[in-house]
Amino acid sequence: MALQQIIDRRLAGKNKSAGNRERFLRRHQAHIREAVRRAVDARGIREVAGGTDVHVPKRDLAEPVFQHGEGGLRERVHPGNREYVTGDRIERPKGGQGQGGGSQASDSGEGEDDFVFHLSREEFMQVFFEDLALPDLARTQLAEMPEYKTHRAGFVSDGTPSSLHVVRSMRGALGRRIALGMPARREIDRLEAELEALPPGAEADRAELLALIALERARLGRVAFLDPIDLRFRNRVRVPVPTTQAVMFCLMDVSGSMDEARKDLAKRFFILLYLFLTRHYEKIDLVFIRHHTQAQEVDEEAFFHARETGGTVVSSALELMDQIITQRYDPTQWNIYGAQASDGDNWHADSARCGELLRQHILPRCRYYAYVQVAEEEQPLWQTLTELAQSQPAFAMRKATEASHIYPVFRDLFKKERAAK
What we know:
39% of the residues lie in helices and 16% in strands. The chain is α/β, with parallel strands linked by helices.
């Protein structure tokens, strides 16, 4: 087998090495993941996708070295030596005279800082989403692994015998024979007219005309009945289509009980979900639904920044989701997902209606539905959904009452292990 050599020709910035940087990132993954977690907890929604600085303690930058053990005789050459010659014995340095290092300052007030480097936005997102996936999606690489469908695209002059179009081929052959035989037919008609006009007794001229007519008929007979240039084959082209179609419904409670802190938690969860979906699933639709006493489908900007508020009727959002699925997303052709964030507060008689809508209308058509409560109190809606989660494997629910909870809750809801179930 011939030896194959791979040459990395990726462009790197001045005085930078992409290969060395990748090895460095792999070596310090623990510090990088911790820096990403802290950045997600501390940042606002709009800045969550930016890069961040990573601090690596100096103690973790130490490189392994080989050292000689105690005892033994060794010979060394010291460049620039002016005191010793070959054969001289050099006393060993006394123990404890080495210079140590560390990130803490010494008694003299001197020390060394941790190593700090900047993690780019792309590297930040790669670390953040490295082990997340939508559960139960048949094929996750929608853009990288397309399926193809064949469509008719006219006719071509070459192809397989099974795709030969006989009528088109014969029509082309007939046209070719007519075009190539027309001069010979005109010459035959002229010669036959002269033959009929000959007077009696002109046998020599008759014989000559008959010979010319025979020659033209022979030339006409040499025109092939079917030539390879006449063949026409059905042409089919392959058109890429998505292997799967997926839609994610994002439902957020914007009622009066959702104060700014709770809305911020909900927005953090959905912005992470949005970034996750748009990064990994280019062929996925997003539907944003806000609700208080009434539900409304809105765009991304209104979903995160509109100021409208009111009471709480959670079933209004579920009913709207059910209507949109019926009108636009056939479950036989779409993988349907839902994610909902609320503080759990609801009109006292509406929680049972929510459980009924989920059990009978939404979950039978959904691959997965995640509910995140941004309040600690377990109100009737939480109790209703807890009973539902015990009997519905496609339904999951978690609590996130602080900004630091959003990251682990999100990873728990959309981790790859859950996708394999």
